[in-house]
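Service request form, structural biology core

Requester: graduate student, group of Dr. S.
Request type: structure prediction, single chain
Budget code: on file
Notes: please return the result as structure tokens.

Sequence provided:
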Amino acid sequence: MTARGDTAGVKGPGPGPGRWTGKAGKAAKTARARKESAIRRALSHPVRSVPLAFLAVIILGAALLMLPVARTGSDPGADPLMAALFTSVSAVCVTGLITVDTATYWTPFGQTVVLGLIQVGGFGIMTLATLLALLVRKSIGLRGQLVAQSETHTLNLGDVSAVLLRVARLMVGIEAATAAVLTGRFWLAYDQNPGTALWHGVFHAISSFNNAGFALYSDSLIGFAEDPWIIVPICLSIIAGGLGFPVIIQLLRGNIKARNWSVHLRLTIYGTLVLLVLGITLFAAFEWNRDETLGGLSLTGKLLGSLAGGVFPRTAGFNSIDYGAAAPETLMVTNILMFIGGGSAGTAGGIKITTFLVLGFSIWNEVRGRDEVTIAHRSISSSSQRQALSVALLGVAAVVVGTLALLMVTDYSLEKVLFESISAFATVGMSTGITYNLPPSAEWVLMALMFLGRIGTVTVASALALSSRPRLYSLPEERPIIG
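Core staff response, request fulfilled:
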């Protein structure tokens, strides 16, 4: 006869053979409930749901591009599945790297799908990055919220619909203005019929504002290298998209005087100007007299080429010269500009200007022997410094691993492979011309880098901020030898 207290592990009668009664049954149910709850939390968490949402769009885009109506059949040697998947990843991640010629491989339907993926990817990145920033701001304490609100002068988490509406208006407004200029130029100067001119104007306007770099010309923008009515509007659109939604909103609200600018606005505006000047100057210095690039152009062409050389690497992906013929010094400068990228909560990629400058100011204050990092009479929190360091080092790790993987599966030089790897991670889309000839294994590496570069920096930074919890105790301190 079994004692009452010994029935905890005995199977009782029930509809199923594995039904347990007593404490063991309750424990099993509790474990299952906890597991299901953990899965629901993992999927519903905003930081984790972002990659899943983008993966869903990528799969849908690839499926549409696999349709026979999307392809012209001009490249019978291309694998339709890999071409569709690679193009979908590149478009949603607003990168611009391609394994097939956008102008000839895709039909007007396929090009429309690509354009839609670019718009969805750019809009999604801007809104998700902005909303995640607001979520991060709300996750900190009341004092931190007040400080963050006084610094950003931007938005409220409770007004999500207003955020989405403002982002949409901003994108459509800038894209429409750019498209109008480009359409008029294509129509009047290049003898395109009004329908073709409008389509080309709209496509390149959306591609430029979203820093995507897709073009409807096989040589990208090389054929327009000396046309200011094409190059300048596209450059301005790229810069606007790369500044980021919070920065543009602050400027549109009348925060024109520099003394009223937040730290984020200062870092983004001044950092953008400095990087543009350096990029344009160095590109001109290295390529001005080289016959392979700018040497054979007129003075106007050289100036426009230098402008494009400083702007396009800011994750836009267009090119008005053949980067396969560029000097090694130019490729090195371009690598640096691509890796840094543009502004946060914008369509540009890279580790972002604010990340780079926060690390720079941290080093500068360390050299000066200061315990506190200050920018524009504001103290930068240690958590922000740690987040910047984490994003930058993870970016370096992704590029190193990607470069090593590409070297293992291809026969190209380190210079070309490194350029390709940084271009993919920073979602730039520039290439020295090797993308078309890569094996499928290398294409998978580039797709992983594009996805990590586009989604990873936003989600990692947000996850680090959301997971930070103050510790109510401190451990004994030690100082390991550094350097």
